[in-house]
C-alpha cells in the first residue's frame, strides 16, 4: 500500500514539529513518523526530565549548604519517589503529542522508516511518498570502540531507573556524564567519571571547567582524566571496566556503566544512499536553506543536520521554522547565526555564551577579561555557595561584551542577560545604566563589566 503526502516528517521532536504544524496550517497534507514514543528527546529523554532531577538536587544541595545556618535536620533524596515525580512530566507526553497532531489533521505513523527512493519511505508494510521529506531524527549516543560496549547503559535508561545503583562509572566527560554524576552523587551513589582527554567539557571556558572539576571531586566524584576505557566485562556482581591511563592499566568494579561520551547524528538506519542523500559524521549535508545538497526533495533540521548550530533544542526549533518557511514560500530564508547560550546543569551550574578567552585571543585584537571570584559577593554568600566565578570578555575597541562564562547556582539565568547583550550589540556603558531589581543576580551585571 502506498500513501502520498505533501510533506513527511521523520522525528516528532522540536526539529520536526514546527514545520509539520506550519505546513499543515497552510493546507498541506502532512505525515509524521517516529520509531520511538511521540514527543522527542527533549521532552521525554533529555532536557525536561533531567531538569526535574536537577531541581530536586538543587533543594537538597541548598538544605545541606545551609545546614547550621538556619536549617537543621538531614535531607535525603528518595530515588523511587523522584522517578515517580519525573514521570508526571513525561508519561502523558506521547499520547498528548500524537492526539494534538491528529487533531490538526496530521497523520502519525509508528516504526522505523527507511528510504527506498529519492522521495519514498518504507515503513512496515506501508510505502509513503512525499513531495518533500524533512529529516529531524536528532542524535543518538556515539558508537564507542570498546570491547563489551553492549553492556553500556544510555542516558534514556538512566532517566528511567527505578532504583539507583550503589556504584556507577560514567564513560566520557561531557554534559551527560557531569550532570548525571552530580545527581547520582547527591542521591547517594558512589560515582567515577573516566575521560580520555586532559580536559572535560571542551566547549566551555577551561578555567571554570577546572573549578567545576575540583568542586566535583570535593563532592565525592572520582574524576580520572587521560583515561581511555578499553573493555567492559560482565561479572557475577556487576561489571569490570578496564581502562588505560598512560602506561597503566586501571580496573573499576561497578554496578552500572553509563555512556556519556557524546552523541552523533541519528542517520544510520535511514538508508540515505537509496535516496541519494549526502551525509558526513556531522550529519546530513545541507545548504543555507537547510535543503539537502544532493536531493532537493529533502530537508533536515536539528541535531541531524550538518550545520554550525549547537545541538540544543532552541536551535532545532529555529531551524524547523526556517525549513517551514522555505517549504511554503520557496527557498528564501537562510540559517541565521544566532547567539546561543548553553548550560551544564551541575551544581554549581556552568554557563557560557559567545567567545571563550582562548577564542578571543585569535579573533579580537584589543580585548579585556574580567575574571572575578564572586564567592564572597552577597548574591552567593547568602546561600553559602562554596565556589562561584565569573569571566566576562569585552571588546575594548567597540565597548561590547563578546563572551561571558559563569559558575554558580544562578549561572543559567545570568547567562541569558549576556546573550541578549551580545545578540543586540549592546554597549557595556548602556548595560551599566540598566536598573535591575535589587538584590538579584542581574543587579550584579554592572559590577561584572
Automatic annotation (TrEMBL):
Domain Pyridine nucleotide-disulphide oxidoreductase dimerisation: 340-446
Family annotation (SUPFAM superfamilies): FAD/NAD(P)-binding domain, FAD/NAD-linked reductases, dimerisation (C-terminal) domain
Co-factor binding comment: Binds 1 FAD per subunit.
FAD/NAD(P)-binding domain span: 5-317
Keyword list, A-Z: FAD, Flavoprotein, NAD, Nucleotide-binding
Cysteine disulfide partners in this protein: 42-47
Cofactor: FAD
Binding site for FAD: 51, 303
Binding residues for NAD(+): 172-179, 262
GO MF annotation terms: nucleotide binding; oxidoreductase activity
InterPro entries reported for this sequence: FAD/NAD-bd_sf, FAD/NAD-binding_dom, FAD/NAD-linked_Rdtase_dimer_sf, Pyr_nuc-diS_OxRdtase, Pyr_nucl-diS_OxRdtase_dimer
Pfam families in alphabetical order: Pyr_redox_2, Pyr_redox_dim
Family note: Belongs to the class-I pyridine nucleotide-disulfide oxidoreductase family.
Protein name per Swiss-Prot or TrEMBL: NAD(P)/FAD-dependent oxidoreductase
Originating species: Aquibacillus halophilus
Amino acid at each position: 500500500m502506498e500513501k502520498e503526502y505533501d510533506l513527511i516528517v521523520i522525528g516528532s521532536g522540536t526539529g520536526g514539529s514546527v514545520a509539520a504544524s506550519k505546513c499543515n496550517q497552510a493546507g498541506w497534507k502532512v505525515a509524521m513518523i517516529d520509531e520511538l514514543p511521540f514527543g522527542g528527546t527533549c521532552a521525554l529523554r533529555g532536557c525536561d526530565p533531567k531538569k526535574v532531577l536537577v531541581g530536586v538536587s538543587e533543594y537538597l544541595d541548598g538544605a545541606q549548604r545551609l545546614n547550621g545556618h538556619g536549617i537543621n535536620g538531614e535531607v535525603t533524596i528518595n530515588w523511587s519517589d523522584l522517578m515517580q515525580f519525573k514521570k508526571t512530566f513525561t508519561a502523558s507526553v506521547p499520547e498528548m503529542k500524537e492526539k494534538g497532531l491528529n487533531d490538526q489533521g496530521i497523520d502519525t505513523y509508528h516504526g522505523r522508516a527507511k528510504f527506498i527512493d529519492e522521495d519514498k519511505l518504507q515503513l512496515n508494510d506501508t510505502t509513503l511518498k512525499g513531495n518533500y521529506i524533512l529529516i529531524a531524527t536528532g542524535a543518538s549516543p556515539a558508537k564507542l570502540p570498546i570491547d563489551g560496549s553492549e553492556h553500556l547503559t544510555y542516558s534514556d535508561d538512566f532517566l528511567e531507573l527505578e532504583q539507583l545503583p550503589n556504584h556507577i562509572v560514567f564513560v566520557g566527560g561531557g554534559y551527560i556524564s557531569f550532570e548525571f554524576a552530580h545527581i547520582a552523587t547527591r542521591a547517594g551513589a558512589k560515582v567515577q567519571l573516566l575521560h580520555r582527554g586532559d580536559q572535560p567539557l571542551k566547549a566551555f571556558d577551561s578555567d571554570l571547567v577546572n573549578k567545576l572539576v575540583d568542586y566535583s571531586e570535593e563532592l565525592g566524584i572520582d574524576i580520572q582524566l587521560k583515561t581511555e576505557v578499553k573493555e567492559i566485562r560482565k561479572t557475577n556482581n556487576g561489571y569490570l571496566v578496564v581502562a588505560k591511563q598512560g602506561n597503566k592499566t586501571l580496573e573499576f568494579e561497578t554496578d552500572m556503566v553509563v555512556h556519556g561520551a557524546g552523541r552523533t547524528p541519528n542517520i544510520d538506519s535511514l538508508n540515505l544512499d537509496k535516496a541519494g542523500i549526502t551525509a558526513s559524521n556531522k550529519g546530513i549535508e545541507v545548504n543555507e536553506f537547510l535543503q539537502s545538497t544532493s536531493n532537493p526533495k529533502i530537508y533536515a533540521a536539528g541535531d541531524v543536520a550538518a550545520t554550525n548550530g549547537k545541538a540544543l533544542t532552541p536551535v532545532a526549533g529555529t531551524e524547523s521554522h526556517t525549513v517551514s518557511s522555505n517549504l511554503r514560500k520557496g527557498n528564501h530564508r537562510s540559517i541565521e547565526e544566532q547567539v546561543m547560550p548553553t548550560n551544564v546543569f551541575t551544581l554549581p551550574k556552568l554557563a557560557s555564551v559567545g567567545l571563550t578567552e582562548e577564542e578571543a585571543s585569535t579573533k579580537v585584537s584589543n580585548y579585556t577579561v574580567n575574571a572575578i571570584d564572586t564567592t564572597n559577593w552577597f548574591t552567593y554568600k547568602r546561600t553559602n555557595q562554596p565556589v562561584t566565578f565569573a569571566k566576562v570578555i569585552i571588546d575594548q575597541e567597540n565597548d561590547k561584551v563578546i563572551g561571558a562564562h559563569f559558575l554558580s547556582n544562578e549561572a543559567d539565568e545570568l547567562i541569558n542577560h549576556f546573550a541578549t547583550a551580545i545578540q543586540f550589540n549592546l554597549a557595556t556603558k548602556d548595560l551599566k545604566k540598566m536598573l535591575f531589581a535589587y538584590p538579584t543576580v542581574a543587579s550584579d551585571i554592572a559590577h561584572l563589566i
